[in-house]
């Protein structure tokens, strides 16, 4: 790299090493000159041409920059605008640019119509020919070209080596081809007079064609490129072009092997998954059939029961005739039902890796997914709020209990992730109305309370809740397993208060609060009365007592004043 | 016209000892080296062909150290018969097994000397062909510089043959010549094979050229509104060499020797733009992507057309393995072909351009830079570093050098401003150039120095000045550039089945 006389031995230049970038004036110019490296620069131009005079001049001008006025261009034969070109006539079509980018795939052959172009010779012949004929028997240029094209093609296919053995394809062989071409795509045979006219015309042109073929050594009339015919002769012939290429041999490497193994494995896995899916779908459908069959049996059994009842005059116990379970399940499954269609639809699409299907996003899926997301978030928040609220005690005198109903079930339910299952409404409530009091609403409420997040006591027994309707139609949430936190409160005054609360849990706790305190009023005013609560409690109330509040659970409970459930 | 003549005389330029002597118009034969008037100066020229015209005998001359595109037919009057001519060597080191005789091309033994001629002589002769207003900028392509390729062989040949040759000392090399010639002959044949083998699987450029293809075979071409004067041989049907004027349809690029045929074709041809998908459009140019396999005829036509202006382009093999990126300008008549570059669908050497050309009527207008920029924008989208296939032509080299220089200076000045360091790789990845190209450009511009035990990049004052001047000029007259945001293109993927190029 460095010239021999250089004293300094250069370190090898690493391409990834950062080099400082200086302007020429930032170093001493004398130094710069002496530092000029005599690299041999790869130009990429062929060696024998690298030294061409004009190129060297141009390169020198570029790298020295000194002689700025130097001619830097390499002389070349010019292109001139043709003086005698009738451009508008030759190029008569107008181009209209589409607004979008052009997409086009027609080939030259498709875009150029009949491949035979008549020559000056043909033109002379055709003009002379037409002169002799009556107007109705004249031949148009298009027609002429079509016929010539048939001749050429037929000659090519019937006698590909005509140039060598001088075979002339007789007119009889041309006839069927002519008819075929005239018919085009239609299947109906040509009318006799049309065919006859065509044949007479073609016969005349055939003579002209034959003469021309003979004059050109029975070669195709249209000039064509030379393609490879015979390896040895062709090789040195610069007119032979566009030979076929060989396939690039793929080199066998370990990486390639691994690649193809991986590919096979993946393919197998994907097929396997597909099979599995089909099996599952099949299983599902079988289950469905079972369900339907069972339903049918049940229905029939009920019908019999009903019949028997009517016959025997038994009243009551009509619940047996109504399908309760499915309804319940429907409701309790509600959040999953939301999730299920989404996941089930997506599951088959994703793992089987068929992009087409995966790409087909259904609006319902998207909605369901969103819904699920929302739902999950709500649940999370709800849980969190529950945690925060775990030890919250509403100290207002007559606390509003904007509690959203837990199930009307008699017992306590653990407050766990199973939260949604607690939402089972009384049977009289339709699922629609129940949709409304879904946790979504509860989430908004808590914002109005001032929470303190109480310290979490891990040792505490699992909290449990129940809902019930108190006097005056108020809805209550009873908690269990949290009382200890109250006891741990240091606040003497407060713990004092509870002393008197023990006697009756149905008793409203009495707080020392001024009911007319504007602050309390204001605060309460911010708590909206949940719509569902209004509906529910009103409707539910009459039959509540029967269903709810078994006394046994109450004894175990250390009932607390109702708090916001969230 | 001349085809028969020169084929057998393949050894014209062999460096074997040459006899000198006086000649006359009649005795002057193919293969002779004579002094011929060119642009008002006498230059050494090789006679490649001879033809009779009405005005007398004409000689096809290839001038020492001038590109072949300046070869021309000269009347006897321009030949200086008062000086000795060098006769072709009588014995033929190889029998004409192949008309391909790069040997002849390598007549350039003289080249070395011409270079050593006093600078003054050269400068004056620069003006070149009288009436020619020298358009420039054909960008040629590339192919890797295979070390064992023809070029190298002839190089060694030259070196061996002309040790310390001074100006006219053709005879000096005579001694060594025989051995060298014999040896190189072997090498050459071998390399022919090598090259064909290489090209069999890919590539578009050749270092080998058949003897016959040294002579321009088409004299004039009507293309759209323009008359083009071809620079090099192109394998159009042989009968066209008889015609004074060949017609090429501007849109489908089909070729006609007969005006009536051409007129008829024009009535039927419905193409108004290259037959592919438009992948770029701004208010100045459009780019179309064309698959050589899908549009075989059109791409072959394009190759034939461009071969007239690209010396080292090979049409030996077919167009299937290439994609063609065609730049056009629009008017109400259609999208007119301005230039194009081809690109291998799968380049083993990582080339992003195979052949690249701006048609002569659009040269020297900045279109070449757009083509080059576009090729690098595609490489950026692919996330690859690209380089043009070698060999480059002279005009190709200049265009690429210019593009590289401008872009590198721009970036380096920013680095300098921020006083940051810059590595070759960093430059390369910013410009989607191979680091080899970055390195060689730095060296060619004398920017790579070794100072205080450190490699440094120095921006020469004149380049900085030129860059600033260019910036200044662009304020009033903005340079056309490719806007990457307008490219609607994804790297095409070819499944294995379509990569089988043997039909």
Automatic annotation (TrEMBL), chain A:
Give start and end of each Enhancer of polycomb-like N-terminal domain: 9-152
- Give any single GO term for biological process: regulation of transcription by RNA polymerase II
Q: Give the superkingdom in one word.
A: Eukaryota
- What Pfam families does the record tag this protein with? EPL1
Which portions of the chain have biased composition (kind: Low complexity)? 556-566
Presence of the UniProt keyword Cytoplasm in the record: no
One cellular component term (GO) for this entry is:
nucleus
**Subcellular localization(s) per the UniProt record:** Nucleus
- Work out whether the entry's keyword set contains Magnesium: no
Q: Where is this region: Disordered?
A: 1-28, 213-232, 532-566
| UniProt keyword terms in alphabetical order | Nucleus, Transcription, Transcription regulation
Family the UniProt entry places it in: Belongs to the enhancer of polycomb family.
Query: So what does this one do?
Result: Component of the NuA4 histone acetyltransferase complex which is involved in transcriptional activation of selected genes principally by acetylation of nucleosomal histone H4 and H2A. The NuA4 complex is also involved in DNA repair. Involved in gene silencing by neighboring heterochromatin, blockage of the silencing spreading along the chromosome, and required for cell cycle progression through G2/M.
Q: Mind telling me what this protein is named?
A: Enhancer of polycomb-like protein
**Biological source species:** Glarea lozoyensis (strain ATCC 20868 / MF5171)
Task: Give the taxonomic lineage as stored in the record.
Answer: Eukaryota, Fungi, Dikarya, Ascomycota, Pezizomycotina
TrEMBL record, chain B:
Q: Which GO terms describe its cellular component?
A: NuA4 histone acetyltransferase complex; nucleosome; nucleus; piccolo histone acetyltransferase complex
The active site annotation covers: 389 (proton donor/acceptor)
Arranged from A to Z, the UniProt key words for this protein are:
Acetylation, Activator, Acyltransferase, Chromatin regulator, DNA damage, DNA repair, Transcription, Transcription regulation, Transferase
Q: Which residues form a coiled coil?
A: none
What top-level class of enzyme does the UniProt entry assign?
transferase
| The keyword Acetylation is assigned to this record | yes
Show where the MYST-type HAT domain sits: 213-491
Tagged with keyword Transferase: yes
SUPFAM superfamilies, sorted = Acyl-CoA N-acyltransferases (Nat), Chromo domain-like
Locate the compositionally biased regions of type Basic and acidic residues: 89-98
Q: Name one GO molecular function term.
A: chromatin binding
**Reactions the enzyme catalyzes:** L-lysyl-[histone] + acetyl-CoA = N(6)-acetyl-L-lysyl-[histone] + CoA + H(+); (2E)-butenoyl-CoA + L-lysyl-[protein] = N(6)-(2E)-butenoyl-L-lysyl-[protein] + CoA + H(+); L-lysyl-[protein] + acetyl-CoA = N(6)-acetyl-L-lysyl-[protein] + CoA + H(+); 2-hydroxyisobutanoyl-CoA + L-lysyl-[protein] = N(6)-(2-hydroxyisobutanoyl)-L-lysyl-[protein] + CoA + H(+)
User: What are the Low complexity biased-composition ranges?
Assistant: 99-109
Q: Record's Pfam families?
A: MOZ_SAS (PF01853), Tudor-knot (PF11717), zf-MYST (PF17772)
Q: Please provide the Gene Ontology terms (biological process) for this protein.
A: DNA repair; DNA-templated transcription elongation; positive regulation of macroautophagy; positive regulation of transcription elongation by RNA polymerase II; positive regulation of triglyceride biosynthetic process; rDNA heterochromatin formation; regulation of cell cycle
Please state the Enzyme Commission number of this protein: 2.3.1.48
Q: Please list where the region (Disordered) is annotated.
A: 86-149
State whether it acts alone or in a complex, and with which partners, per the record. Answer: Component of the NuA4 histone acetyltransferase complex.
Function (record text) = Catalytic component of the NuA4 histone acetyltransferase (HAT) complex which is involved in epigenetic transcriptional activation of selected genes principally by acetylation of nucleosomal histones H4, H3, H2B, H2A and H2A variant H2A.Z. Acetylates histone H4 to form H4K5ac, H4K8ac, H4K12ac and H4K16ac, histone H3 to form H3K14ac, and histone H2A to form H2AK4ac and H2AK7ac. The NuA4 complex is involved in the DNA damage response and is required for chromosome segregation. The NuA4 complex plays a direct role in repair of DNA double-strand breaks (DSBs) through homologous recombination.
Q: Report the sequence similarity comment from the record.
A: Belongs to the MYST (SAS/MOZ) family.
| Protein name, entry field | Histone acetyltransferase ESA1
